[in-house]
Give the backbone structure.
Amino acid sequence: MEGIAFATPLLSPRPPLAPRALIGIIAPATNITVQPEMEALRPPGVCNQHARIANPEQAIMSDRDTLAVREAMLAGLQAAVDSLLPCRPDHLVLGVMAEQFAGGGAAGEALLQGLRARSGVGVSDWSSAMLAALAALGIAPGGRVAVLTPFMPVGDQGVRRFLEGAGYVVSGIIGLRAPSACDIARISPERQIEALRALAATEPDAILQAGTNMPFAALAPEAERWLGRPVLAANPVTYWHGLRALGIRDPLPGAGRIGLLG
């Protein structure tokens, strides 16, 4: 009806589906794990929006193959970020490791700085999230950490360089060498459990999981109980970091010990 005078405002201060936060989440096209694992932790009033990096599915049988996949993902990252910006996210969460894009260290940090400048919002990634989680758990540089990955040795080396550069002692690292990026999602819980027990034997203060396509969120809290130490899963910890960066401190029981810390 033309000419009707409404007494209520047209626009709400915040989107009704995201009154607390709208989080943009970026994962590779081959990744089927980030979205369900992060969605399972979403607090009331928080809305997740997802974008995909157009990376190819191809065999990964060597370090050279790993580097080729890394280059393809890096080429698609900026486009994935740009596809999220029109919905005005309050924060970005990378469901892929900067080490796998840029090799870690200064190159990884430069990549993150570029994303922050491009988007105008904060960015959470595996590296910053894991360091924040270790600090929240009272595990300072000089502490011992062990790492479980699905990667080839070149991927493991990037993780090791990052952690040692941050001052931690890497007591052990096991790369499960998934034969493709998509196959990371098929790594069995039984193999993961076997690897976790071997890593626990190196007496770390915490075990960290890398590789966001490896389903691990459900296993990590269970492993914390039978290993008697923190087990930090990639996707829950990165999502936890994004929420805390926005001042959202709801308990996240599905994230294990770290989910109970503000």
Residues 63-84 form the longest helix (22 residues). The chain has a mean pLDDT of 91. The chain has two domains: 21-125+236-260, 128-232.
